[in-house]
Amino acid sequence: MENNQIKNNSITRQEDDFAQWYTDVCKKAELMDYSSVKGFIIYRPYGYAIWEQIQKYLDKRFKESGHENVYMPMVIPASLFQKEKEHVEGFAPECLIATKGGKEELDDHLIVRPTSEVLFCDHYAKIINSYRDLPKLYNQWCSVVRWEKTTRPFLRGAEFLWQEGHTMHASEEEARTETLKMLEVYDDLGRDVLAIPFSKGRKTDKEKFSGALETYSIEALMPDGKALQCGTTHYFGNGFAKAFGIQFQSKEGKLENPYQTSWGVSTRLIGATIMVHGDDNGLVLPPEVAPIQIIVIPVAANKPGVIPAAREVAQKLVDAGYRCKVDDSDKTPGWKFSEYEMKGVPLRVEIGPRDIEKGQVVIAKRNDGSKIFCPIEELADKVHQLMKTIHQEMYEKAYKYLLDHTTDVHTMEELNAALEKGGYSKMMWCGNQDCEDKIKELTNATARCLPFNQIPNGETCPVCGKKASKVVLFAKAY
Amino acid sequence: MENNQIKNNSITRQEDDFAQWYTDVCKKAELMDYSSVKGFIIYRPYGYAIWEQIQKYLDKRFKESGHENVYMPMVIPASLFQKEKEHVEGFAPECLIATKGGKEELDDHLIVRPTSEVLFCDHYAKIINSYRDLPKLYNQWCSVVRWEKTTRPFLRGAEFLWQEGHTMHASEEEARTETLKMLEVYDDLGRDVLAIPFSKGRKTDKEKFSGALETYSIEALMPDGKALQCGTTHYFGNGFAKAFGIQFQSKEGKLENPYQTSWGVSTRLIGATIMVHGDDNGLVLPPEVAPIQIIVIPVAANKPGVIPAAREVAQKLVDAGYRCKVDDSDKTPGWKFSEYEMKGVPLRVEIGPRDIEKGQVVIAKRNDGSKIFCPIEELADKVHQLMKTIHQEMYEKAYKYLLDHTTDVHTMEELNAALEKGGYSKMMWCGNQDCEDKIKELTNATARCLPFNQIPNGETCPVCGKKASKVVLFAKAY
Questions:
Q1: What residue segments make up the domains of chain A, in order of their start?
Q2: Taking the model in full, what pTM does it have?
Q3: Which residues is A72 bridged to in the sheet?
Q4: Using CA atoms, how far apart are residues B418 and B462, in angstroms rounded to an integer?
């Protein structure tokens, strides 16, 4: 069969300028637009719909594991924000602050939430009294504001959409379990929904969340060799609980402070999905989050019966549970092929007069461009199987990239060389922050995580030469 | 069967102090809590879950009618906000304004969105070029901030959750149709989901939205005789489009300004639901929005087999698609009855040793307290039927109240007497705003709407005595 695809040449090629390619895709696939508010983006329908799919998966998982959604105020009084010292120091430089309400100057300025730990703690102090009130497993879907100097669509912005879980537990053990359990939920999202293999692990103290005792993260590797932190979970111990006077009477009748966690993922996941899977023709979306999973395109649409046949095929796929559309507009098939490739639609179904005669359609896979013929009566089954295959292929491709770009390093020279090449540098670390600082200073790379999968590749720290037992992944990062 | 219900006496009775009853229910049913941010409430899990049910229904209806969700920035530059004069005048007095970002003073202050017309228009100006780009049917789920002096949970607050639809159309007719169509969707929500009969109609010019040409509303009557505006749809003509330079090339090749609508409902609907259906035992929730539709309570739970039987019954109902929980805690049945009455759970299923013997359960309806026995094997069918009955009964009760509290008035004396009694005063109106102003001045009542159902009850305006052809509903309002 003739290949009548038309390459969309209006976006920068990845190898020419990856950052520009990314921006081009964000705009051309109509995922977002810039707004008149500096640093704030508009989530356009196609981008927002991806977020809705992510929400749907996570919200279900959260609820299944006993979490409840709530909604807290979008602003935090400055007086309240200052209660936990480390926390406020971490966030103060990037806060947007409201100082006027109506015609009045506000005595207590209001900080537009950069995160809501303090609001949850303030509320928990009121509603937690007894061990019977625990655990409290709350989650919130909202947007937060971080006053960032340099912004990039989905990756770093003045405002982004996210979920923030905030939980309180009677015991340290239970809170620690929650911290790791939610990281697993995020990891499942990567594996089963976004087709992204995450590296899971603990953050170094230098990289952890302001106010947390421990931070865990999922990290993904981008095609430019840089790591992207895609989600974090935090274990707080009872530091905030003490600062906010949250106490409960234990089963034994003692007054105790509960143990706290928080965890979040954001629309940054859209950025990860764009980069991990995209190519020079645009987006390549994993089937689970694709707003349109199948696009049906009539070929030689002016011939009698073609448009009705295309619509019938599309309806069949809608009935089978797919997000499927037919494009029967008067644009050329070539234009349409290029458009839906740009939009990363996983499957394209073509149907023309000859196909109708033969009772078949052509199915093209976005992820590798391959095409097959399929009898119409087998279409739903075939599509079902192809969707699974596509997801698997996308995951495996990303996983292979991850493996190919993880380098074992044992010396500073090797580290430099590996970071130059891009990807993760896996090395032993003595655990001393000085060595971590030095790497950052020399290479601008940061410790992404101490991966759960701790398989030592040496015995000494490449920086100080001292004995080292921790495996750490370093990389340049977004 | 013995009536072992325990009245929850910890809330104020409606007839003693309706406003206090309302606040008591909001707190005791754990729908909300006050936060440390003056005027801002916390949407607790039980309250937020009601909102999620409302969202689910509306989001489906919006999408089915071709609307797409987007997300716009939460702040609006002051310079942009001032582009449409009437609009800014209406909202400026109640804006929360950010003046600092990070350590810097902002040149262009940022207004926390009270509504997003200007952001949508600013975006539409960029993306609408041709008639092919129309209509644009966008919706946004978010929160907005109005710096209100006096606030009441769900009814009037500094921040509330809502959806705002913003659409652009090539023709005036299409935009007008959209304005009325979305009002119908809201009306359906009332009839089919909230069991609230809304009065639909057009707002007078005095009461319309700042910047709109026409505003339509759904109004509900509360048990204290006051009306509550529950949602509005606006037709803007092309005023904003001109102010923001939104133009498209028509099919005929002419440059034209598109026609605009916006429409919204908010968490105020939760307030309406609480008031319309609640009683002295607490909330009474319509089945469609009840976070828990059925509570199963084991009676004599210490007897062998009771708790497993209760769990089995609950599982059966979960499998049948209901939001059903079993309370097998060690609290007394009396405490539990009272608790789930407070929470307005539509059906309570009781099961004790004698019930198990007989293969039956007791079902109690929250809306009228009636009880029946039901063989366990018929339970799912019976529940299905009861849920329909409850919804219908609740709607009819509210509708009867509405009819009983709508008084035909023909003179100022009758108007005064009717408003004193509470409810709607239906009267003829000359259409002159002076007469509307005078009623407000004398009685503090406002024109709620010119109902679509225009059945004249006279020929002259009670205020000026002049010829009048418009039917209007006046009431004191929230």
A1: 18-277, 294-390, 406-475
A2: 0.96
A3: none
A4: 13
